[in-house]
Amino acid sequence: MARPTPGGNDDSKASMIYPIVLYGDPVLERPTEPITVFDDQLRKLVEDMFESMYEAKGVGLAANQIGIPKRLAVIDTSFKEKPEERLVLVNPQVIHREGKSKQKEGCLSLPDFREDVTRASRVTLRAQDEFGNWWEKAGDDLLARAFLHEVDHLDGKLFISHISALKRDLMKRKIRKLMRDGQW
Ligand SMILES: [Zn+2]
Q1: Strand 101-106 relative to strand 86-98: parallel, antiparallel, unpaired?
Q2: Tens of pLDDT along 97-141?
Q3: Distances in whole angstroms, Cα of residue 98 to Cα of each of 1, 105, 117, 124, 138
Q4: Measured in angstroms, how far is the CA atom of residue 130 from the centroid of ligand 1?
């Protein structure tokens, strides 16, 4: 979907595509605030987050990645293929984790960087939906990884906190150079 035209028609149904906040912005490294109000504004934000995530070609997006420091994330590991895999995570908590899996992982806030990250291979999450109803779901493999990646975001943690200090420093050096060149 195209970016809404500023000053155009005030169509409140139109999705707002948010730009993704990149690594370096402190909003990504601060824990987010729990959500207590479940209103139309929250539901609009959830829709906008799905659209912003699809636009950025992601399968998960946390609210602080669009600059909103709230405990909210969306996930769709099917990337639009299966509506039942669209998950709204409000105030999520990891309640169980087991197994181990090492896979390449990337993040919309660290574009073009991918590194091996070892995480649990099966994760049970408890969260609310956009209406405040609690749900619980066990996810394997990619979904388990998405659960942990997004909850990390909401706790102010990025996936690079799970890689070696050496690799992390190298990555940060590359990013600083991109920043100096105005490409970040
Ligand atoms: Zn991420």
Answers
A1: unpaired
A2: 999 999 999 999 999 999 999 999 999 999 999 999 999 999 999
A3: 38, 19, 15, 9, 11
A4: 21
What's the pLDDT tens digit per position in 17-58?
Answer: 999 999 999 999 999 999 999 999 999 999 999 999 999 999
Cα separation, 157 vs 30, in Å, equals 8
Q: What is the CA radius of gyration of the chain?
A: 17
Q: What pLDDT score does 2 carry? A: 40
φ/ψ (deg, to 5) at 25: -80, 125
From residue 130, give the alpha-carbon distance in Å to each of 9, 13, 67, 179.
Answer: 27, 17, 19, 36
Q: How far is CA 169 from CA 23, 29, 160, 161, 174, in A?
A: 14, 17, 10, 11, 9
Measured distance CA(37)–CA(17) in Å, rounded? 22
Q: What is the pTM of this model?
A: 0.92
8 A C-beta contact, residue 68 and residue 45? yes
Distance 159 CA to ligand 1 centre (A): 7
Going from the Cα of 23 to the center of ligand 1, the distance in angstroms, rounded, reads: 10
Q: Please list the active-site residues.
A: 150
Q: Which helix (H) or strand (E) holds 149?
A: helix 141-154
